[in-house]
Specification:
Layout (H helix, E strand, L loop, with lengths): L1 H11 L11 E6 L5 H13 L4 E7 L2 H13 L5 E5 L13 E8 L2 H12 L3 E7 L15 H4 L1 H22 L2 E7 L10 E7 L4 H18 L4 H12 L2
Length: 236
């Protein structure tokens, strides 16, 4: 309950960046039972009087069936749910806003990558269960950060989100990493908020270099960074 309300508060801070004269298209990746998705729809349609179309995506067919049933029950005719994997998801329509609450490990990276590809105006993400870098990290000069399991785990999670923030900056997003909610309510406590805005070439290149340097220092490859760089090479 606290997480959902905090999420909506943070969305409210940036919602004016979206157009008021056209349909706002939103994708909620890893929607699960969709408590957030329903509240977001209610907030935008009933309270803000905005024209929205929201799609929730999750792997569990029974959960999606229940969500669609609930949307129909409440008359939320512009809210639909689909069964699907985040990595392989495609949209035929332009997407204005991407939401990802607790998508596990690299699923968050694919959610962010889709948002970047679509040039979504707003991105809101709370990452979860970050294992990717933990298995890769090694550094002779900074071995103190990899010696103890719990320190390594937390360092890897923080490094993952730091790299994601830099990649988003590089891709033209003003990006903030914020405290999501008091730690006693959830250990998943970093909120990524990215707004599509002009970012200077100097700032973009600095963000890329910072991420590159961190990856070189610890001998790591991070999924979002690899996806963006591969995409960039394919267009060069």
């Amino acid at each position: 309950y606290r997480q959902i309300n905090r999420f909506v508060e943070l969305v409210d801070d940036e919602i004016d960046a979206l157009p008021t004269d056209q349909t706002i298209r939103i994708v909620d990746f890893g929607c699960g039972k969709s408590y957030l998705t329903f509240i977001l729809y209610y907030y935008l349609v009933e309270l803000k009087k905005r024209d929205v179309k929201i799609t929730g995506l999750d792997l569990k067919a029974d959960v999606i069936a229940n969500c669609n049933k609930a949307a129909k029950k409440y008359g939320y005719d512009r809210l639909t749910f689909e069964v699907g994997d985040i990595g392989g998801y495609e949209s035929d329509e332009p997407i204005d806003m991407v939401v990802s609450l607790h998508a596990c490990d690299t699923a968050t990276d694919y959610a962010l990558y889709h948002a970047i590809r679509w040039k979504a105006k707003l991105i809101f993400s709370v990452p979860c269960c970050q294992h990717e870098l933990n298995g890769q990290m090694k550094s002779e000069n900074l071995s103190i950060l990899t010696r103890y399991g719990i320190v390594k785990e937390r360092t890897a999670a923080l490094m993952t989100d730091a790299i994601r923030g830099c990649v988003l900056e590089y891709c033209g997003y003003k990006t903030d990493l914020l405290e999501f909610i008091d730690i006693e309510h959830s250990p998943k406590n970093i909120f990524i908020r990215a707004v599509k805005k002009p970012v200077s070439e100097e700032k973009r290149e600095r963000a890329k270099e910072e991420a590159d340097r961190l990856c070189r220092t610890f001998g790591i490859r991070q999924t979002l960074m690899q996806l963006v760089m591969t995409e960039e090479r394919s267009h060069s």
